[in-house]
Amino acid sequence: xxxxxxxxxxxxxxxxxxxxxCAASFSIFNFYHMDWYRQTPGKERELVAAIATGGQTNYADxxxxxxxxxxxxxxxxxxxxxxxxxxxxTAVYFCNARPVMAxxxxxxxxxxxxxxxx
Length: 118
Hints:
single chain; mainly beta; four-stranded antiparallel beta sheet; 50% strand
């Protein structure tokens, strides 16, 4: 089983909303800082939002006020609520798990496609 599995992507019209989920199969989820990244063809992967083990959050300027990152440690799951979506939000969205200790493994999901188009 893949350590991180994203879901919730799809096609949505501009102004619409989507909620992405990232389910972790490893048991010490609360020892990982979690991130959402996105990537479009020909561009580098960019950080969209991050949530620390203690719940502190950070966002890219391009999504502030529109996206909300959250986590449920009891369910080993992270979420990204995306509102007021724009065509420029179209990308493959990846979740990333950064361990609190360097000796622990680092995980990436395989991504979920989000397309914002009329």
